[in-house]
Design brief:
It is built from 10 helices and no strands. By secondary structure, it is mainly α.
Length: about 190
């Protein structure tokens, strides 16, 4: 792909040109969907990652960071989506500690060290989860229960797009709080 085509697409993205954006979505959404679904994602994950990557691409385009891009903008964008999904997938494993809270039974196949480590992980998660605002906790709790964004939005009283954005922000904030906790770092060393 030549740089003229990239520049045309970048200008269209910055300008919010409907035809350029529609063409961009049509060309790249299938590849992103295939990748995320292949690696245990959902259609909601596809939508979230695609939208987040579009916002990032828009900001990079506005700041001029893409002016020297020599690769295809489509390949660059799909790379952003893949990296975002990989990072999100890794961070989701941290949030799986929520299951520990719901299942406090001892597993006879686990050693006492494993059992205590899981309990400590649960405590770290709970400590930071309780620090979130009431609406943030409610959104994440419904998300952990597997509710759809549409259901969560109707319960909370926000639009689906705003709810998706708030869920993402709250999830990222919770992950950051847990990762910055010295107790978390201690657990990761074990």
């Amino acid at each position: 792909m030549n740089s003229t085509t990239n520049k045309h697409i970048i200008k269209g993205i910055i300008a919010g040109d409907h035809q350029t954006l529609k063409s961009f979505y049509k060309k790249d959404l299938t590849a992103v969907r295939r990748f995320i679904l292949k690696y245990n994602g959902t259609t909601e994950d596809v939508e979230d990652v695609f939208q987040e990557a579009m916002v990032l691409l828009y900001h990079k385009a506005r700041s001029g960071e893409l002016e020297t891009l020599e690769a295809s903008i489509h390949a660059y964008f799909i790379g952003i989506c893949k990296n975002k999904w990989r990072n999100q997938w890794r961070k989701q494993r941290i949030l799986e500690y929520q299951e520990l809270r719901e299942n406090n039974t001892l597993d006879p196949s686990e050693s006492i060290v494993e059992t205590l480590t899981k309990a400590h992980q649960q405590d770290v998660f709970q400590k930071h989860f309780t620090r979130l605002s009431t609406s943030s906790k409610q959104i994440l709790q419904l998300f952990f229960e597997g509710k759809s964004m549409k259901d969560i939005a109707s319960r909370i009283g926000f639009t689906e797009g705003y709810t998706r954005k708030k869920k993402h922000i709250n999830k990222e904030r919770l992950i950051q709080m847990v990762q910055n906790d010295p107790a978390f770092m201690e657990l990761m060393v074990r």
